[in-house]
Specification:
- A six-stranded antiparallel β-sheet has the order 1-2-4-5-6-3.
- The protein is an alpha+beta fold.
- The protein is built from six helices and six strands.
- β5 and β6 form a beta hairpin.
- It has one domain: Roll (Thiol Ester Dehydrase, Chain A), CATH 3.10.129.10.
- α1 crosses α2, α3 packs antiparallel against α4 and α3 crosses α6.
Length: about 180
């Protein structure tokens, strides 16, 4: 018996959330942008849909096909013993950024999973960070592997980390 997510429980009580659970990232982003505080709403819905990434507490600022910009506030829960942002929090932020850029672009036409994650830590990360990803999305006619890179910058604009995610994509039949 599989454990249901909190979104499943809410969806049973709120019909709109059931619709959101089946919607693509692009659909949810478009819907949220028409609402007051739409970016914050999208970020919270993403946290419900992807609990591990949601625990990071990042905010999606921009999203389009192959492009995402996500911010992470510096706070105690993401820090390490060296008083900087933890390496795994940086890796998670980069993977999240590449993932939503990709998912927005494939718009339900394929499913993807990370098969490799490479992380270059360039300097200690402190303060509010901005992760950005810009990439061309491949043809989805056949299963493929695809690399996307997220650069994470500090408040001064210096790159503190670079995350390269290899995504394995598999087309899905139209519904």
């Amino acid at each position: 018996m599989s454990k249901k997510s909190p979104l499943h429980d809410l969806a049973a009580r709120v019909p709109l959330l059931g619709t959101l659970q089946r919607a693509t990232v692009a659909d949810i982003w478009a819907l949220c942008q028409r609402q007051p505080m739409g970016k914050a709403l999208f970020s919270r819905l993403l946290a419900l849909r992807v609990p591990y990434s949601g625990a990071l507490g990042a905010d999606v600022e921009e999203l389009s096909n192959g492009h995402a910009r996500v911010t992470l506030r510096d706070r105690r829960s993401v820090r390490n013993h060296l008083d900087s942002i933890h390496a795994v929090a940086l890796a998670n932020l980069g993977e999240l950024t590449t993932g939503i850029a990709l998912l927005h672009a494939i718009d339900g036409k394929a499913v993807g999973i990370v098969t490799h994650l490479g992380v270059d830590f360039l300097k200690k990360a402190r303060g509010t960070l901005t992760s950005s990803c810009d990439g061309d999305i491949p043809d989805l006619a056949a299963p493929s592997e695809f690399d996307l890179v997220a650069e994470i910058r500090d408040h001064a604009g210096e790159v503190v980390c670079r995350v390269r995610a290899t995504w394995s994509l598999r087309p899905v039949a139209p519904k």
